[in-house]
Write a structure and sequence with these properties.
The complex is a heterodimer of chains A (about 110) and B (about 120). Helices cover about 0% and strands about 55% of the residues of chain A. Chain A has strands at about 5, 10-15, 20, 25, 35-40, 45-50, 60, 65-70, 75-80, 90-95, 100, 105-110. Chain B is mostly beta strands and about 120 residues long. Chain B has strands at about 5, 10-15, 20-25, 30-35, 45-50, 55, 65-70, 75-80, 90-95, 105, 110-115. In chain B, about 35% of the residues are buried. Classes of the chains: A mainly beta (about 110), B mainly beta (about 120). At the A-B interface, strand 5, strand 6 and strand 11 of A face strand 4, strand 5, strand 9 and strand 10 of B.
Chain lengths: ~110, ~120
């Protein structure tokens, strides 16, 4: 069974500052992937970043980076130089064999 | 278009009526997923298709829910005798193949279903 936990229902960050969103997971799969998706008010889920569990190097995509701690089953998302357009719901997800399990999300507010 | 297309965008219906939600995946994507997102909640897995077959229907909440996929493309999610607790956003996603993190899911904009 897989579970994904996001313990921060809401976070705020000042524009241009850095914020970290937390995610912990549990899976019985030996080979799995982790993702962060962004959901703006338009409802569409947008892939932000992904991490292969077998890779030790943390994934980065421009202003977005992750801190993947496999032993601790932790997968946090860091957003640098926050922009107003980053305001959205952020979901952490774990992919095992084929099924994605999503966390309950963190609402990020960006303050001007 | 190039993305996952869902219709209708919004649906309002009376309790007890049947509804059909449609998903048109990205061309060539063999895997298709349905999720339900209740207000302020995460995504709840409903069903997964690989081609036309559904290896995992474990997420369907009750026997009022069913889904089919024909021609390895379009999928319809049907809810019979709708109840107020069925009100949610229903999201569809597709991926080139299943089970590969190198082929992440691409989501549609969802159908917002409101049961009066």
């Amino acid at each position: 069974a897989q579970t994904v936990t996001q313990s921060q229902p809401e976070m705020s960050v000042q524009e241009a500052e850095t914020v970290t969103l937390s995610c912990t997971y549990d899976t019985s799969e030996s080979d799995y992937y982790l993702f962060w998706y962004k959901q703006p008010p338009s409802r569409q889920m947008i892939l932000v970043i992904r991490q292969e569990a077998y890779k030790q190097q943390n994934a980065t995509e421009n202003r977005f980076s992750v801190n993947f701690q496999k032993a601790a089953k932790s997968f946090s998302l860091k957003i640098s130089d926050s922009q107003l357009g980053d305001a959205a719901m952020y979901f952490c997800a774990c992919l095992g064999t084929y099924k994605y399990i999503f966390g309950t999300g963190t609402r990020l507010k960006v303050l001007a | 278009g190039a993305g996952v297309s869902q219709s209708p965008s919004n649906k309002v219906t009376e309790k007890g009526k049947d509804v059909e939600l449609r998903c048109d995946p990205i061309s060539g994507h063999t895997a298709l997923y349905w999720y339900r997102q209740s207000l302020g909640q995460g995504l709840e897995f409903l069903i997964y298709f690989q081609g036309n077959s559904a290896p995992d229907k474990s997420g369907l909440p009750s026997d009022r829910f069913s889904a089919e996929r024909t021609g390895g493309s379009v999928s319809t999610l049907t809810i019979q005798r709708t109840q107020q607790e069925d009100s949610a956003v229903y999201l569809c996603a597709s991926s080139l193949t299943s089970g590969s993190g190198n082929q992440p899911q691409h989501f549609g904009d969802g159908t917002r279903l409101s049961i009066l």
